[in-house]
Amino acid sequence: MYPPTAVPGLVPGPSKLSRSPGSFTLDDTTAIRATPGAGPAAALLRTLLAPATGLPLPLAPDGRIVLVLDPGLTGLGAEGYGLTVSGEAVLLRAAGAAGLRHGVQTIRQLLPVAALGAGPVRGVRWSVPGVEITDVPRYAWRGAMLDVARHFQPVSFLRRFTDLLALHKLNVLHLHLTDDQGWRMPVAAYPRLTEVGGMPHGGAYGREELRELVAYAADRGVTVVPEIEMPGHARAALAAYPHLGNFPERRLDVWKSWGVCDTVLGVTDDVLDFCRAVLDEVMDLFPSPYVHVGGDECPTTEWHRSPAALRRVADEGLDGPDALHGWFMERIGDFLTGRGRQPLGWTETGRDLPGSFTVLAWRDEDHGLAAAGRGQYVIMAPYRSTYLDYPQSAHPDEPPGQSGDAVDLPAVYATDPAPAHWGAPAAARVLGTQAQLWTEYVATAAHAEYLAFPRLCALADTAWSGGHDWPGFRARLHHHRTRLDALGVPSRPSAILRPERTTR
Ligand code: ACM
């Protein structure tokens, strides 16, 4: 591509990049010219560069950093951008706001690494090398899931994590808000969900802080996709409201073990009303077109024994209690589509979720193919290459994680959201890919960051560039690691053993 010394390695790698003569230096006199609609991108550039550079970067009609929003640039798609840097000017153009935001992140990466620091840096010349870049993502869905149910993380960390995603042009933060071990989503109609379910391992969010997080992420081009688990992985809800279970007289605690829990939601009208009421509040807070409703790891043993569940099987003419899973998900899916949202769920087989669902294929790759074959949209999340709760290597210093073989950097990089043998029709159903950070063994923000990076860099590169250039990625990552250092992302296991540092 380009000699690594000529342009600092960018992650993800751009579709087309060439070096051109000269470099552009930003100083106290540099101003931004923004065409109509490009103002938010100018504000983002100013906000991101302010802490380290202190540059004022005001708007001015003759500004030499020119941000152009031009819907006529259809070749760049919804998220692509063109960037031209010469000695005289920086010209960033895109057809949409998302493209401008990605271009801003590229400018940020082209600056000296010190520009990423959290505090003022003196004596650095803030120069951007001359380049000509045209950059369009391969996949529209480039995500990271964070499990805040198993171990709660404060919203300050979610903002920092969002910033780290945006730096890598990842555009989805999927929040796993509820599980057997915790319920972190405030629901006004059911206050005990967080009063009871927020207790172990942390706390719960406030409505306003979630609303602010959604806005903060949107300013950075990141959509926050909420997940409320059902009908399995719902023990925290059952601890708060026992009547939602299959044996309403039974009292349960919020689960203290990890794994798959037998206690699941009942299938009565009351339970469906509860789920709809919760999802109404979720949709009020999260404008995301997609709403995730779980669907995974739902043992049906209780439905085989519950009189109410067996009555439901008979009334609906189902084949047996196992069919209640699809029946339940179909009703929830219909509710979401009726509200204009897209239901999203974890598929276990590629055939288990109703056709209205977009599916995350987390087990075998072939499940993605099976779902695509049924006409469903698919996001690839195979655990052997996108689950970041597995250790990064077999080194004995790695902190304890999910038991199993390491998911190392080459494995993540090799994630292929639409393998060639799938053929074009199935590939056209693939929206993209995302990484999963489950937190059974992850109690602190520093530990979460340690597990996320640099593996998220590899996922971002694959999702953005469709990457098949491991040596090229490694060369770019070599420089990019200095950016992660400047951002304070822990790179060694020992770092996570230190007392928790505070986040903004
Ligand atoms: C999952 O790992 N149960 C989606």
TrEMBL record:
Residues 1-21 are annotated as: Disordered. Its EC number is 3.2.1.52. Residues 8-135 form the Beta-hexosaminidase bacterial type N-terminal domain. Belongs to the glycosyl hydrolase 20 family. It comes from the Bacteria. It catalyses: Hydrolysis of terminal non-reducing N-acetyl-D-hexosamine residues in N-acetyl-beta-D-hexosaminides. The lineage of its organism: Bacteria, Bacillati, Actinomycetota, Actinomycetes, Kitasatosporales. InterPro entries: Beta_hexosaminidase_sua/sub, GH, Glyco_hydro_20_cat, Hex-like_dom2, HEX_bac_N. It is an enzyme of class 3 (hydrolase). It holds the Pfam family Glyco_hydro_20. Keywords: Glycosidase, Hydrolase. This is beta-N-acetylhexosaminidase.
